[in-house]
Amino acid sequence: MMPDLGKYAETVLSSYAVSILLIVALVWWSVRAARKAKLALEDVEARRK
Amino acid sequence: MGSIWEYANPVKFSQTVSRFLAPVAMGATVCLVIGLVWGFFFTPDDFRQGATVKIIYLHVPAALMAINAWFMMLVTSLIWLVRRHHVSALAAKAAAPIGVTMTVIALITGAIWGQPMWGTWWAWDPRLTSFLILFLFYLGYIALWEAIDDPDTAADLTSVLCIVGSVFAVLSRYAVNFWNQGLHQGASVMRAGAITGTDTEEKVSNVFFYPLLVCIIGFVLLFVALVLLRTRTEIHKRRTRALLARERMA
Amino acid sequence: MRALLKRDLILAFRAGGGFGLGIAFFLIVVVLVPFSVGPESGLLTKIAPGVLWLGALLACLLSLDRILALDWEDGTLDLMATAPLPLEAVVTVKALAHWMTTGVPLVVAAPLFGVLLNLPPQGFVWLVVSLALGTPALSVIGTFGAALTVGLKRGGLLLSLLILPLYVPTLIFGAELARRGAEGQAVSTPLLMLAGISFGVIALLPFASALVLRVNLR
Amino acid sequence: MVLRVKNLSVARGGVAVLEGVSFTLAPSDALVVKGPNGIGKTTLLRTVAGLQPAFKGTVEAPEDSLAYAAHSDGLKSMLSVAENLEFWAHVFGQKDITQAVDAFDLSDLRNRLAGSLSAGQKRRLGLARLLVTARPIWILDEPTVSLDTASVALFAQAVQRHLSSGGSALLATHIDLGLQANILDVGPFKAVAGATAISGYDEAFL
C-alpha cells in the first residue's frame, strides 16, 4: 500500500507530518476557543433571565 | 430584502454560520482526505523531482491560501472602514491566524522541499523571501490586534495597517524580485510549472493537476469553515462583553 | 507649522537625545561589524554599502517612538487636535523634524563611516545620494508606525515589529543603489525606484498617519 | 459665539456614562459642571471639545471657537515659559503673549525653563495658554488643581475678564471661584441600564 518514496521518503513524510500537525493544531485551537466563548456567552445569557 | 448586508448583523450572522458550518467543514474534510490520499498514494513520481513532487499537494494550496487570506483581510478591512460593519472587522481578525498558519506551512514545506532540490534548506529565492515578508506582516497585524484593549480602536488601526501593509507587501514583492537578480538566478525555474499547476506543456502534469485541484478546493473550504467558526467566536466574545458591561451598570 | 517645526528642533537639541544617540548608535554598529566578520578588506568593501544602510536604518528606528509619544503623554496632541492646524500637517512636520534631527546627520556621517569599512572611492557619492533619498521615507513610514502605537504601553517593541516589514522595499532599493554605485554598475533602476518610494510615501502616508492618530486620540 | 449642546449622550470605554445633557452657553456666560468623581465630567468636556465623538445628540459651536485645557498642560519642560506660550500662540495664529504673561503673573518667570517651575506655576502657565489661543469659548477641566489661593484668585480674575469681554467658559471644578456662574449638576443625567445605555460599538451585539 505504501508508495515507494525512494531516497526522498524523509522529505515527503516530514512535509506531510508538519503540515497536518499545524492544520490539526489550528482546527483544535479554533474549536476550543469557539466552545469556550459559547459557554461564557450562555453563562451570561442564563444570568440575564 | 435579500441584500448581502443583512449578514452584517452579528446575530443574524451567527445564526447563519451555525447552519452552514457543518456542511462546509464536512466538504473541507472530504476534499482534503480525497485530495491528499490521491496525491500521496496514487500519483507517479515526477521524472525530475522524484517523490518530492508529492509535497506540491500541501505547498501550493497553503501558499495560495496564505495570499488569499491576506486579500480577504484587505477587503474586509476596507468594508469595515467604509461601512462600519462589525462582522467585517471581526472576520479580518479571525482570518489572520489562519493566514499565518498557511504561510508557515508554505514556508516549512518549501524549505523541506528545497533541501534535496537546491541542496539547501533556505535559499533567498524571491518567492520564498516574499512569503517570509508576508509572515512578518501577519505577525505585526496580529500583535497590533492583541495590544489594543478597545475593540473598535483595534479594528480601525489594524484595518489601516492592513491596507498600508498591502501596498508595501506588493512593493516588497517587486523589490525582492529585482534584488535577487543580482545574486543568483534560476532557483525558481524548476518550480515555475509546479506553482501555476496548469502547466500544459507537459502532458504528465495533468496527473498531478487533478489531485492538486481537489486539495486546493479542500484548503479553500477549510479556510472558509475556520473563518466562519472563528468569526462567530469573536462575535460571541463581543456579545458576552456587551452583556457584562450592561450587567455592571444595572 | 513653522512654529511646530522650530519647537521640535529646539526640543531635539536641548534634550540631547536626537542628534547624538542616533549617530553614536550608527558608529557602534559600523565598528562592531569588522569585529564580527573579520578585518579582511575585500570582504568589508563588498558588504560596506549594505552594512551602512542597515546601520542607518537601525539608528533611525531607535528614535521613532519619541516622535509622538512625548507629545501624547503631556497632552500636547489633544491640544493640537483642537488647534487650527490639521493633523496631516502635524504628522508631516513631525516626520520632517525627525528626518532633520536623525536622517540628515546620518547622511552626513555615512561617508566618514564608509572609510572605516573600505568603501571604494566611487561609492561615496552614491552612498550619500541613496541615504539622502531614502532616509525621508524611513522617517515618514516611522511616523506612521508611531501614530499606530502612540497610546500603547509596550509601544516601542510593537512599533519595531510593525515598521520593519514596511522598511523592506526602501532598504532593498537604497542598499542596492549604494552597492551598485560602489561597484560602478548602472544605478538608474534602483535610483528611480528609491525616489519613487520616497515621494510616494511622503505624498500619501501622512493621510494614513493622521487617520490613525485621530482614532488613537478618540 | 454660542455653544449649544442638545440631548448629548457621552460614552467612556464603550459604555454610556451621561445621557440627555442639554445646555446653551451664551457669550459672557459661565457654566460650572458639578457631580461626583467618575460620573463623566471629563468625558462630557472632551466630547464637547470635539476630542471624542458624541454617542448621541449634537454639539453646535462656531468653527474654531473652542479652547480646551485639561489635567495635562501640553507644556515642554525643556522650553522656557515664553517659548511655550509663543509656540501655542503661533499654532493658533497669534503673535503677542505679553497679555497672557501678565494675566497670570508670569513675567518674572519668562525665561525660566518650564521644567524648573513648581506645580502651581506650571498650572498657571497652562492656563495662560488659553489666553494666547484667542478663542472665545473656554472648556476647562479642573483648572484649579494645585493652585494656591492667590493663584486661584488670579485665575478667577482671568476668567472674569474673559467673560466681560464677551467670552464664555464651561468649567468642571469643585472650588467656588466667585463667578456669576450657572451650575449644571450632571448627577441626574447619569446613564441607566437600558436599551440605549450600551453605546456605539457594542450596541450591535445585543
Gist of the model:
By secondary structure, chain B is mostly helical. Chain B is built from seven helices and no strands. In chain B, 50% of the residues are buried.
Summary keywords:
heterotetramer; C: 218 residues; mainly alpha; 9 helices; 86% helix; elongated; D: 206 residues; alpha/beta; Rossmann fold; 5-stranded parallel beta sheet; 3-stranded antiparallel beta sheet; 8 strands; globular; Heme exporter protein C (chain B); transport (chain B)
Would you spell out the secondary-structure blueprint of this structure?
The complex is a heterotetramer of chains A (49), B (250), C (218) and D (206).
Chain B: H1 10-42, H2 56-83, H3 86-118, H4 126-147, H5 151-181, H6 189-196, H7 205-249
Chain C: H1 2-15, H2 17-37, H3 41-62, H4 66-73, H5 76-82, H6 87-116, H7 123-148, H8 155-183, H9 188-217
Helix pairs in contact in C: 1-6, 2-3, 2-6, 3-6, 3-7, 3-8, 6-7, 6-9, 7-8, 7-9, 8-9
Chain D: E1 3-12, E2 15-25, E3 30-34, H1 41-48, E4 56-60, E5 66-69, H2 81-91, H3 98-103, H4 119-133, E6 137-141, H5 149-164, E7 168-172, E8 182-185, H6 200-203
Parallel strand pairs in D: 3-7, 3-8, 5-6, 6-7
Antiparallel strand pairs in D: 1-2, 1-4
Give the count of helical stretches of chain D. 6
Mean pLDDT level of chain A: 87
Apparent shape of chain D: globular
Quote the beta fraction of chain D.
15-25%
Gap between N and C termini of chain D: 40 Å
- Cα end-to-end separation of chain A: 59 Å
**How many structural units, i.e. domains of chain A?**
1
Order of helices and strands of chain A: H
Number of helices of chain A: 1
Regarding CATH, which class of chain D? Alpha Beta
Average pLDDT of chain D: 80
The proportion of residues in beta strands of chain A is under 5%
Structural class of chain A: mainly alpha
Number of strands of chain D: 8
Tell me the overall shape of chain A.
rod-shaped
How many domains, in number, for the residues of chain D? Answer: 1
Determine the CATH topology of chain D. Rossmann fold
Q: CATH homologous superfamily of chain D - what is it? A: P-loop containing nucleotide triphosphate hydrolases
**Residue ranges of chain D: pLDDT <50 for 5 or more in a row?**
none
Low-confidence stretches of chain A: none
Membrane topology (chain B): Multi-pass membrane protein
GO cellular component, one term (chain B): plasma membrane
GO molecular function (chain B): heme binding; heme transmembrane transporter activity
Protein name (chain B): Heme exporter protein C
